[in-house]
Write a structure and sequence with these properties.
CATH class of the largest domain: Alpha Beta
Shape: globular
Number of helices: 9
CATH topology of the largest domain: FAD/NAD(P)-binding domain
Mean pLDDT: 96
CATH architecture of the largest domain: 3-Layer(bba) Sandwich
Distance between the termini: 44 Å
Radius of gyration: 21 Å
Structural class: alpha+beta
Order of helices and strands: EHEEHEEHEHEEHEEEEHHEEEEHEEEH
Number of strands: 19
Number of domains: 2
Low-confidence stretches: none
Strand content: 25-35%
């Protein structure tokens, strides 16, 4: 007999795991489906650490989500006993020869302005203060400016996903892993979900499929969503002495382009390395043919452009590297909306590379929409309607 659920969640990464947990906690008969066995390294929700911060230079519409997410991470830690959120602080810096103190569009300036407007606890640091507090950033230019947010830090994405899926299962959710969804269609008031292992019915469906969303959803998503390959590097530490006992997560802007921005994390105990990455949006890729190899030429290019003369204490060699993907929209903001053609199907994608910090609250909001008909947090800024023209 074909199984029937109240809600099906397709994709169990950051958004899907959070949504399934919140649905199950609310007593909803829910199923979660993933083509792999999460947490895994095949999507966008891996890599040991993810930055979280209250003041998002991306815009004020994200503040309620990240504020609520910070509360939910602490609740999940208490439930599970697992450390998920390390509040080591976040340092957002601009150290560029082209730095303009009057440029309101500078990412550091936007971050400061939002913190000031919404009363977020922070400090504004000049170059001297940055160097004195965090010796690894001694190479910053004399004109550098920094924003330090003590409430920020990093999340452990694999643990966050695993804990929420465990909690979801304990509340009665069904997990179907290593199963690929191939098609969706409305059947009466329900949605039929076809997979490589059969079919199920659901009254409502929430799709959080990341880089596989466009192929599954069709128009208009196939023209709106781009999948961009990203590489993560863990550089060997040459001089542990330059890293303060409580080093922050960081974002460093050192030029005008997307490739002139790097981000990274404090060295994790016992690992002898520091994770760093950049973001690239100029080259899209096919999810089915994603190149997951990282050769030495890429490592050396990353060191030369993002580490050398910018961050002290690291060697031009890595302990490991990894590839993930960002699925991005034309304006780099989220899509959270109903599918325009499939009834009772909600899409939560793409999150454009900055979604993990908001995922706990987004999962709660999506569950509220299913149960109550509306969410406590306003999600209208993420509507498809903004792309109508």
């Amino acid at each position: 007999m074909q199984q029937h659920y109240e809600v099906a969640v397709l994709g169990l990464g950051a958004m899907g795991a959070a949504t399934l947990y919140q649905l199950a906690k609310a007593g909803v008969k829910a199923v979660g489906i993933d083509r792999y066995a999460p947490p895994h390294t095949q999507g966008s929700s891996h890599g040991d650490t993810r930055i979280t911060r209250l003041s998002n230079g991306e815009g004020p519409q994200y503040l309620p989500l990240v504020q609520r997410s910070h509360q939910l991470w602490r609740e999940l830690e208490a439930l599970s006993g697992e450390p998920l959120f390390e509040q080591c602080g976040v340092l957002v810096m601009t150290s560029s020869p082209r730095y303009d103190p009057w440029d309101a569009d500078d990412f550091t300036h936007r971050t400061i302005a939002l913190a000031q407007a919404y009363g977020i606890d922070h400090e504004v640091l000049d170059a001297s203060a940055i160097r004195q507090r965090f010796a690894q950033f001694a190479p910053v230019l004399d004109s550098a400016i920094g924003y330090f947010e003590p409430e920020g830090g990093y999340l452990r994405p694999e643990r966050c996903i695993a804990v929420q899926l465990q909690q979801a299962a304990q509340h009665g959710a069904t997990l179907r892993v290593n199963e690929t969804v191939t098609a969706l269609e409305n059947v009466g008031a329900a949605v039929r979900i076809s997979t490589d292992q059969g079919t199920i019915l659901a009254d409502k469906v929430i799709i959080a499929a990341g880089m596989w969303s466009a192929g599954l959803l069709g128009a208009p998503f196939d023209s709106l969503l781009r999948v961009c390959r990203q590489v993560l590097y863990w550089f060997e530490i040459e001089d542990p002495g330059v890293f303060a006992a409580h080093s922050p997560s960081f974002i460093l802007t050192h030029g005008p382009g997307f490739t002139d921005v790097s981000y990274g994390f404090p060295p994790l105990p016992g690992e002898g390395s520091m994770k760093m990455a950049t973001e690239q949006y100029h080259q899209a890729c096919d999810p089915a043919a994603l190149d997951r190899t990282v050769d030495d030429n890429q490592v050396q290019a990353m060191y030369r452009t993002q580490v050398l003369d910018k961050i002290d204490g690291l060697r031009p060699a890595v302990t490991k590297s990894s590839v993930c993907t960002y699925t991005v929209t034309p304006d780099y903001h989220f899509i959270v909306d109903e599918h325009p053609r499939l009834r009772n199907v909600t899409v939560v994608s793409a999150c454009s590379g900055h979604g993990f910090k908001h995922s706990a609250a987004l999962g709660e909001a999506l569950a509220q929409r299913c149960v109550q008909g509306a969410s406590d947090i306003d999600l209208s800024a993420f509507s498809l309607q903004r792309f109508a023209n």
